[in-house]
Design brief:
The chain is α+β, with helices and mostly antiparallel strands. It has two domains: about 40 residues; about 90 residues, no CATH class. It has four helices and seven strands. Strand 5 and strand 6 form a beta hairpin. It is flat, with a radius of gyration of 23 Å.
């Protein structure tokens, strides 16, 4: 009786796929990600969880009120347990990258800034209400770039 060796499927190298996804933006990225297989999507989510879970060191700054503190709960992906964080102004912290990104997010809903409206003139000379400036409430300065 002769047996034939069972060939195992080649291991898929997702590195090139992840690099391509990371370089795409906007609708191109959305359309490309919709064409991925279920295994590719799962592998990409694992890659993002590993990438955003890396620890970064930096200094927390609270601008409003000066010397204040911020307490919030964060969770990067579904299935994780939420973690409560408390930050004091001027202290150095080592936190996951997704928490540091939350501090530097330009999305107003995260509470990192609030707009101050001002009246500006349009091309016809009529006054229009626009955003004059962003008032930062708090931030996180990473030590990796200093």
């Amino acid at each position: 009786m002769q047996t034939t060796p069972v060939s195992t499927p080649p291991a898929v190298d997702f590195g090139q796929l992840f690099a391509k996804i990371d370089h795409l933006q906007g609708k191109d990225k959305k359309n490309f990600c919709q064409s991925l297989t279920k295994d590719e999507k799962k592998a990409y989510l694992d890659y993002l969880a590993e990438k955003d879970g890396r620890m970064v060191t930096g200094v927390f700054r609270c601008y409003e009120p000066l010397g204040g503190t911020v307490t919030f709960t964060a969770m990067a992906f579904n299935g994780e347990n939420p973690v409560k964080y408390e930050f004091f102004d001027g202290m150095e912290y080592t936190i996951p990258k997704y928490v540091a990104k939350r501090f530097e997010n330009e999305f107003q809903g995260s509470g990192t800034f609030y707009p101050t409206n001002s009246h500006i003139l349009d091309s016809m000379g009529n006054p229009v209400v626009g955003m004059g400036k962003k008032n930062r409430r708090f931030g996180f300065s990473s030590m990796e770039f200093q």
